[in-house]
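Hi V.,

You were right to ask for the full record rather than a summary. Here it is.
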Amino acid sequence: MAGKYKRLKITNWNSITQQYDDITHRYEEGGYNNNIELEYCGEGEYKGTVRYEKGTVGIVINMNKENPDAGKGTYQYKTNDAHPDLGTYEIQKDQNDVNMVYVNYSNVISSDWKNSGKVQGYEIWRKIK
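Predicted structure:
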């Protein structure tokens, strides 16, 4: 898992349509850096940062020792807001293409908790280095 990745797709769950909305274009048009770099910290743990519309998040991913193609992790926005914004990741490496990673995310607490509610979706990452 250590290395540099590029996000190919970013989605958000739409509770009205009951479908995932592809929001990748917002990142491409907004000039956001879609690269993610993961550093191996030992014992199946990886750390890195990811850029989202609301800012940069620090991530920690722990790959499963019994099934190294799957893992779980956490993320938290790096802000000084009074309310934290954090959530969880579920990671699945593609067994047919070792460079592809699928990431489900779900927030636990949103910094805009009065207005935003639950945010969840999935992303597709491709290893580039």
